[in-house]
Amino acid sequence: MLPPRMLGLLMLLALLSDVNGMCPTDFEGPILDPPEIIGTYGQSVYVNCSSNSDLIDGIAWKIGNNSLDLQEEIYFLLETVSLTDWSMTAECIIQLNEIHKCSKDLKITVYQNPEVSVSVQEVNVSAEGTLYKVRCDAMNVAPVQNLTVTWHRNNQIITTASFNDTTKTPVNVSSDVLILISRRENVVQIECKAQLDLGLHGPQFPAVSKMNLSALYAPEFILKHNENISVLEGDGVTLNCDAEGNPPPVLHWTHDGVNLLENTSSLEIAYVNTSTTYTCTASNHLGSTTKHVSVHVIRGTTPELPSTTERDCPITVSPAEIVVRFGDPLLITCNTSDARAVKIGWTDRLGVTEMNEPPSITWKVEQMKMWNFNPTCFVNWSDSQCGKRLDVTIYQTPDMVSVSALHLGPVVEGLQHNLTCDIYNVAPVHKLRVTWYRGKEVVLLETFEHWFSVTPVNVSSTLKVTPNRNDNGNVFRCEADLDLRPIVQPKSIHSAASASYTAVVHYAPEFKEVRDNEEVILGKNVTLGCSAEGYPPPEIQWKYISAVNLKETTVGRQKIIMITEATSTNAGVYICVATNEVGRLTRSVTVVVKDTNSTFIWLLIIGCICCLGIFIIVILLCKNSKKHGQYSFVPGNGSDGTDIPMTPKSAGEKA
């Protein structure tokens, strides 16, 4: 009768097909751990091939075109795969007998994260707004079929793009998007995010590029109509020509065809003695516009300067202080309680605007389109004049608030990183407050009191952060608001919260286990586990002397060594290595194999030695007693046959 092993082999051969490499239907075939490798180019990884059947002759690896030697009479084989070829292949081969074998290919993905840049390709200006064609270039990326490009507009997803190219080597690809921006949007942030999704290995850290765009339009004057200004003969005057446009217009002053000043909105005339007209032209590459400012000289008597102080002037302005959004309507009423007043009126930087009969006059503005607006209400008596200047705060909330990291690479634990909060088109900036939050905790409050600009500006606030691993996943945000107290009660108004920034902190591995020794009884099973925390999740590797009764497996992110029926050859030091892009950490476990039979023998030997020692001590004590004259006598017969009593001699008797 054939032995069981031979019968098993014959049954296995009966199920085999004639094609080498095909595994029998009832044979599980090679077991790969991990079943798939995903790594960056140049990385080295370990992979184990094993079999659950003991009816095999051996295992071998084929790495690329290199076939390695067959390892006989083993049930698992660990091999290093170096990802130095974009089309790297690996195959585990199980030799079933001298003729037949079966194999399994290891799935390998070699990847490289892209570099990203955003650029404007085309611009088309129309009445609806500005249409941009924006391109995102993702460079040196592999495999491109795993790449997704996501477009964001002010932190909102607008479209995504994927690629069907099956090339495994790094390539350059592009994605285009059309962005229409209206004038009312002012500033729009466009973001391109390119990210590889590698299945079980998860999405990679995205490459991001951002760009701020705004609507383009030809210049427009804030005060569109021509202006007439009255000036006393011999006095000076400042002419203003405020214009807006995108790109910002270039301003040009002329007088009677003579060029005066360029790129300035103000023209100062120190001495006026003749009525004349000045021309201001605002232009950019989209067009130009012109307005005229006529200066009229006033000769003769004019109202005198106020003869009383503002505090003593009998004028009441309602409201006393004004806060108005740029572009909103404005209504102000001025009253006087002095019955002697003959005229009441308003004046601004352009001169007398309107006069009326006392006791009141109202100034109505349909749209506040001037940033420098501080009118004065005045009353005239027959021989004097006084006035009260009105404080007007003209504000504009930010068009956009965004948070970004200045550092392009990953946020690493223990290194200082700067987060920037960009606030666009806010006025007045000296009233601006920026509050930084980590979650719900306030970490920084910044004001801009040292700035002074009544027109809108762009400003930034920087938060310096030295993160630790507990900050991973924390949300940072900045909030910009205009503090208009005490004019507006009870608190500031018109806050604008930014989009949040979620910190992804990279930190070095840290082991969960602290056990350094493991004892196992000879012939018993033992399991060694190793896992570590870190970001990116660390790769775990064991280093040890291989043995036929040792198997390494992966459970989640834990690497486990299983030793079955431990022998003395399994004793020794096992080293676990955890590695990620931030750092590398090792720990060792000493395995001690104990034999229970040898323990019993040693106990028996020690017991015998103890008994022998006790016996020797007793003998020595007996000998020591005889040396001191202590005897025991047994009566015997005398030579004559009579009993002779043996009694000790008393101390007083003589022999």
From TrEMBL:
Keyword Transmembrane, does the record have it?
Answer: yes
Which topology term describes how it sits in the membrane? Single-pass membrane protein
- Recorded protein name is Angiopoietin-related protein 6 isoform X2
Give the principal location in a single coarse category: membrane
Q: Which UniProt keywords apply?
A: Disulfide bond, Immunoglobulin domain, Membrane, Signal, Transmembrane, Transmembrane helix
Give the matching Gene3D superfamilies.
Answer: Immunoglobulins
Which GO terms are recorded in the biological process aspect for this UniProt protein?
cell adhesion
MF annotations from Gene Ontology = integrin binding
- Look up the signal peptide feature and give its range: 1-21
The UniProt entry's GO CC annotations, sorted and at most eight, read: membrane
Superkingdom classification of source: Eukaryota
Annotated Pfam families = C2-set_2, ICAM_N, Ig_3
Looking at the record, the residues that make up the Ig-like domain are 114-195, 219-294, 398-494, 509-592
**Localized where?**
Membrane
Entry's transmembrane regions: 600-622
